[in-house]
């Protein structure tokens, strides 16, 4: 049943009709547990609150389905406004972006131009770090190509490596010389067994492998996990190889295991909370439900309390 629900919610996450409708619903059906608000001021206030608890953040303006050059440029403009708002407010946060939101499916050149505009603004705002979120496998190769291109001109950009993909270790090696800050994750999309490990145990093993690989390369790792076994594994690597805590951080999602985030920070680890915001929340919310179908209870509660 759990696998059925996972596949069901992943299927729903790609439904463009429901995505359009969700923008009219607002943050209903429990989505406000995982999404920090609809506007930049909402997001900044959430980051400020998390900072006061000893946590740093990365802000993600949600959006996945872009159909025109105008929409892509508007999305980039909004990301730029977010960077400027972070800088002006003095909160501790960086920015995460999706290339499809910046026009990748319309034109690669358009996407790269928008990405450069964001990075140029981030440079001016204290060389703020910008993370390119990794999307599904269909966009993986071109995302890595664009990252390599950007690394020729910028040192404030990185991306995400998904452990469930066979190519994960090779991708880490391909950017090794650039000393890139990489977020390491298990992966949340449904992919073919031709490109991804189908079994959870294999994904977990590969996740540990790439964490160790990247850390021993001497590069910065953002280990994004809610799995206690993985957290303990990183702590063991820290001790065994005398890895400084300035070389890695733990990352968790807004609204998930909030107390664990605070506890880790109190232990002296840097903990960064991934904070999504905006009205285009639907696809993100569906993927959170796919990761833990038990959260469907929040949807049902939303129907009866609105």
Give the overall silhouette.
Answer: globular
Order of helices and strands: HHHEHEHEHEHEHEHEHEHH
Question: Strands across the major sheet, in which order?
Answer: 1-2-3-4-5-6-7-8
Low-confidence stretches: 298-306
Catalytic activity: L-proline + a quinone = (S)-1-pyrroline-5-carboxylate + a quinol + H(+)
Keywords: FAD, Flavoprotein, Nucleotide-binding, Oxidoreductase, Proline metabolism
Organism: Brevibacillus fulvus
Domain Proline dehydrogenase: 43-299
Features:
TIM Barrel; nucleotide-binding; proline dehydrogenase activity; alpha/beta; eight-stranded parallel beta barrel; 306 residues; 8 strands
Tell me briefly what this model is.
This protein is α/β, with parallel strands linked by helices and about 300 residues long.
Topology:
Layout: H1 2-13, H2 16-25, H3 40-52, E1 56-61, H4 69-89, E2 93-98, H5 108-124, E3 130-133, H6 140-151, E4 157-162, H7 168-174, E5 182-185, H8 200-216, E6 221-224, H9 228-241, E7 248-253, H10 258-266, E8 271-277, H11 282-291, H12 296-305
Parallel strand pairs: 1-2, 1-8, 2-3, 3-4, 4-5, 5-6, 6-7, 7-8
Helix pairs in contact: 1-11, 4-5, 7-8, 8-9
């Amino acid at each position: 049943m759990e696998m059925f629900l996972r596949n069901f919610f992943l299927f729903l996450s790609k439904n463009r009709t429901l995505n359009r409708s969700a923008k009219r619903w607002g943050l209903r059906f429990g989505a406000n547990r995982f999404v920090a608000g609809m506007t930049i001021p909402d997001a900044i206030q959430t980051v400020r609150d998390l900072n006061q608890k000893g946590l740093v953040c990365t802000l993600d303006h949600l959006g996945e389905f872009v159909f025109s050059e105008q929409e892509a440029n508007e999305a980039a403009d909004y990301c730029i406004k977010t960077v400027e708002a972070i800088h002006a407010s003095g909160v501790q946060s960086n920015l995460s972006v999706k290339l499809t939101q910046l026009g990748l499916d319309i034109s690669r050149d358009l996407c790269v131009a928008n990405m450069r505009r964001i990075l140029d603004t981030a440079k001016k705002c204290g060389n703020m770090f910008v993370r390119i979120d990794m999307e599904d496998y269909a966009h993986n190769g071109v995302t890595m190509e664009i990252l390599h291109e950007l690394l020729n001109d910028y040192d404030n950009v990185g991306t995400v490596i998904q452990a469930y993909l066979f190519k994960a270790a090779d991708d880490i090696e391909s950017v090794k010389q650039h000393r890139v800050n990489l977020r390491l994750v298990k992966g949340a999309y449904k992919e073919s067994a031709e490109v991804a490990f189908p079994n959870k145990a294999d994904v977990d093993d590969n996740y540990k492998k790439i964490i160790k690989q990247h850390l021993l390369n001497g590069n910065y790792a953002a280990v994004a996990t809610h799995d206690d076994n993985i957290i303990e594994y990183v702590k063991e690597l820290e001790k065994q190889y005398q890895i400084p805590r300035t070389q890695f951080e733990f990352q968790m999602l807004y609204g998930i295991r909030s107390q664990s985030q605070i506890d880790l920070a109190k232990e002296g680890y840097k903990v960064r909370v991934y904070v999504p915001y905006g009205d285009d929340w639907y696809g993100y919310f569906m993927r959170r439900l796919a990761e833990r179908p038990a959260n469907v209870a929040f949807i049902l509660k939303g129907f009866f309390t609105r």
